[in-house]
Amino acid sequence: MAVKFLSPGSGVSGRGVNGRDRAERRLAVRMAAPSLVLMALVAAVPIGYALWLSLNQYSVRTAGLSRFVGLENYVSALTGPHWWAAFGQTFLFAGLSVSLELVLGTAMALLLNLAFRGRALLRTVVLLPYAVVTVVSAITWETMFQPNLGLVTNVLSMLGLPGGDVVWLGERGYAMAVIVLADIWKTTPFAALIILAGLQVIPAETYEAAELDGASKWQAFIGITLPLLRPAIVLAAIFRTMDALRVFDLPFVLTRGANGTESMSMLAYTQLRENRLVGEGSALSILTFLTVMAVSVVYIRFAGGNIRDVAKEEQ
Amino acid sequence: MDLIRRSSAFQEDTAPLATGTAPGAGNQRRARTAAAVAAAVAVGLLLSGCGGGAAPQGADQPAAADPASADSAAGNLTVCGGKDASGIYKGTTEAFTAANGKVTAKYTEIGATTDEARTQAVQRLEGKSTECDIFLTDVIWTSEFASQGWLLDQTKLVEANKERLIPSTVETTKYEDKYWASPFFTNAGLIYYQKDKVAKPETWQQLYSEAARAPGNSFVYQGKQYEGLTVNFLEMLYSAGGEVLDDKGEVRIDSPESRKVLDFMVKGLKEGSADRAVLTYNEDPARLAYESGNFGYQRNWPHVYRLLNATPLAGTFGVAPLPAWEGGKASGVLGGWNLAISAHSTNKAAAVAFINFATTPDWQKHVAMDFSQAPVNEDAYSDAGVLAKMPFATELLASVKGAKPRPISPVYPQISQAIYKNVYAVLSGTASTEDAVKAMAGEIKAAKASF
What we know:
The complex is a heterodimer. Chain A is mostly helical. Chain A has helices at about 1-5, 15-55, 70-80, 80-115, 120-125, 130, 135-145, 150-160, 175-200, 205-210, 215-245, 250-255, 265-275, 280-315, and strands at about 55-60, 65-70.
């Protein structure tokens, strides 16, 4: 990256262009510097500090006592069973909830894009679940799935459907299902809104042209809508995946991490806050951070290219 | 299950740090001791300076609360704690301000939940904030806060007030032979039962067998994976004669009693003494389930009495102390809140005066009458005014006096996790009793070896 930056377009463009290009780039660096410094302060400093904390142990018995342990906190996290269990559970949660949210979000966006009376009102109303504080909605879901009293369990048993006598939050699998459901309910509108924005920039003429060519609605959807919607869907996927991998409040309220629902963030929280094991907890936070980073890099490598391609095509 | 770090060789080497002096930390420790002595002298000078004839503070008594300083207290006092649901915190600061005349006390809410209040308190204490003079501390925080040097030693104050305090509640403020807080109000589990369906429980065995007799008799308790499950398990374990740590702090949970209690709880879930739904219940869902009228027994805290009386169940339920284990005795686990003085308080004399006021027998009656909390003064429980407002005061006193503190250790949160996670694993059927008991003991030992 750095080398490319210092000699832009080397071996491709002429000298004159190269010189002007270089001056312009220097100006760009100078203009970007203040915000880069600011970003370093707000992002890099805390991360660096957490990194430092994670290389030490802090006594929980004697105030102010600490010692440098190098990578020991990481080794014990990566060789113990808890990190990997939480890792797997978090990815299972993220995979299920994000993919379902994207499918439902696309469907919702298509509906909201139709012309009908009260569309503006409905667009606002569907966002309501997203406006509810997660902890509050988690408590509501907990009540709804409560055996004996809960709305869901009662309705299921009234209709004679299976699941009415299941202790949802007390069983493996079922507990995860409730958490995924609560997340879908809350964030599908968010995904829908991003995808709706993508839908609105698709020019109407493309559909008219497709219609003239005799394409069916379904063919138009597969051949036009989806490909042109890809950048928006990918953007929604990035946002949602980042969020889902850091999930904390839903399992914290609904199960306290029981029955295979403990997430990476919960694990870090328990060590940092409840146990005040600052070094161990920071190591877990850094591991969570690295995991989320790695996933976003993968996304941006693929999706970023995709977004650029689409931009080029539109030009 | 080792959320708790497995102890490495390095850790074992330095484990005696807690009691002795480790070579590596020697200098740091000496420096800190010197600083503590200096601070104590400074505090001593300050206290004797403004306290007139107050007893001088010895340099070997680092930062201790002086009972005599209360007489000359003046100025402002800030009491910090969690959400004031019953109004007791605000009510006590107002009554104290009116009664004292020279000190103006106010209550500052620093967190909506217990967990949040602890986080906020820890942040202030770590940051040496002078905002709060007194922190309301959950009984299980004492050793953790005391070990960090965050609190003023209240030994003399507690000794001076000991006559009027129930001994089991005083025990919750103890860490390494000193008292670090004064009990304010206490808490102990009770059994609520439907008089028309089931008998008053005398033993856990009787309760479980009656609960299994009909579907509408079953028992609700707090079986979710959280602190409450530790309490529910320890209540039975203590009554069965088991313990977590002995007097010397050795781990004693790997015992026949632990196995007996776990098997008993599992059998109860299988035979219908308790509905499997208890695995998802903390306090409120348990109460709500019981309010449906489909249950015979409920284990919960005293505050539920008032709430149950506001439902159609009013008049149909009875209140009993926690039952005994068959062939054993009745016991329980103490809850409640203590008053701890911050080591960084700028008005320690006023803090002492506040604590003196809050623990007087007279104010302790108001604790029960006005705020429905369990007093730490025994006479309050037989007061006519209290009995009128809290008809189960006699049963509550029996529960409080029989109850024991939870394990006293600066790593209590880890110990509790080791208990509730393993108990949950057994109850939900993912671990055997044998494995869980072994895991519990191993994890508690590892937690105790924490740096």
